[in-house]
């Protein structure tokens, strides 16, 4: 990473290149840019391309769309796929401090155990946490390659969020590295945010429940906890999370000029009443107090 990515305070946008950005992603990117620029932070761009759903050329298309909206960022784009060694080194660091264990469970087994009565909803039930040596050998013989999980010493953790206030959420023994060797999202985010000096995390509020896990992990690694702002999502016409199947929601499908689209997003955020705007225009009126805090219901086909 060059020094422009590591010096001083920074915000970021960190899309997964699994397809074209939709209007909800674009709105979150605009907000992340506004939060960073309005607080004199650098703004970094990171491609979370570790996922097996990554589509070739999607990263470039996403970057082109963000640029054409008028968003700019500092330094080179960071690609998580270039940083596997770093994630593995952190897993080793946690392992030698006794903070990991190997897990042989399949998704189905976890789901079955996690839906048992008394299990914390959505939390890993602890199946492999305390395997004996012979149990582990038996699992190994099954041929399954183990995931590495965090041996969490807390059940929950509290974070401070600019829009949600204090939020306490579950911290289970979450996955750090999947069985196929892929570093897990929660690990990569924490490692990368701190490596690039990111102290402001603005993202969709569907990720609010990940923040306690990430913050706890950062605390274990002795890393600073960023300021969080989990922003409302864009909902489709049925008030469900906007999805590709709602149609006509990516930049190329919207057939709007960048200024008209930024104007529309700005109005949805209560930052302007103009039809056309640039991110720089919205920056002038941007404030946390003014920001629309409810999800925005978008009707693609009526446009
Ligand atoms: N890559 C994630 C997404 O596209 C965002 C991760 C984050 O901002 O921490 O939903």
UniProtKB/TrEMBL annotation:
Group of enzyme by EC: ligase
Which residues of the sequence carry a binding annotation for L-glutamate?
12-16, 48, 185, 203
Provide the GO biological process annotations.
glutamyl-tRNA aminoacylation; tRNA modification
> What PANTHER family would the database entry show?
GLUTAMATE--TRNA LIGASE, GLUTAMYL-Q TRNA(ASP) SYNTHETASE
Please name the source species.
Answer: Hoyosella subflava (strain DSM 45089 / JCM 17490 / NBRC 109087 / DQS3-9A1)
* Bound cofactor: record note: Binds 1 zinc ion per subunit.
Q: Does the keyword Zinc apply?
A: yes
Protein name as annotated: Glutamyl-Q tRNA(Asp) synthetase
Domain Glutamyl/glutaminyl-tRNA synthetase class Ib catalytic intervals: 12-258
The record's section on InterPro entries has:
aa-tRNA-synth_I_CS, Glu-Q_tRNA(Asp)_Synthase, Glu/Gln-tRNA-synth, Glu/Gln-tRNA-synth_Ib_cat-dom, GluQ/Sye, Rossmann-like_a/b/a_fold
Q: Where is the signal peptide?
A: none
Asked whether the UniProt record includes Secreted among its keywords, one would answer no
